[in-house]
Amino acid sequence: MAICIFPGTFNPIHEGHVKMAEFALKKYNFDKIIFIPAYLPPHKEIEKSLAEHRFNMVKLAISKNPKFELSDIEYKSEGKSYSLITVRKIIEQYDIRTRLNFIIGTDAFAKLETWYHPEELKKLVHFIVFPRLGDYGENIYNEYREKGWHFEVVPSEYINISSTEIRNGIHNGESKEIKEYIENNGLYKN
Q: Smallest Cα–Cα separation from 2: which of 115, 112, 128?
């Protein structure tokens, strides 16, 4: 079974996330993409109270695609969500014998070497990197290739949306269902 994981804060999940997963699903013919909302991301300050809402919004956003799956592996931990621990659990759960595919944006990709035990993570993962407009460019990619990271930069139709813009009311990149969820639960009020 060809599996790809898509871990993230998803604060909130938006159309850009969904389109990235749809693109990867089609390009690589994955059997499933597993969305894994972080309970507490180690590199971001986030309110614990949002964990359940972020989890629920991901569930809502991916419900129409039968090849998208939601994992509560990090949500249930109720602690910091370290990718290495999650990757190990997924590899064991699905008996994966090759590198695990992992969708990531360039903003997070550029910080890989600050993650929890990056040298071990490097041995287990093949990253599918989705660049943002104006992001880091060839320098970071060349440096990471030389250091032995396994990844592929995926040229796709760029979607100019960020969760930060949605939280700040600058962008309407969330689906109708997510927008209603945010409004009904009084989230991200300035």
A: 128
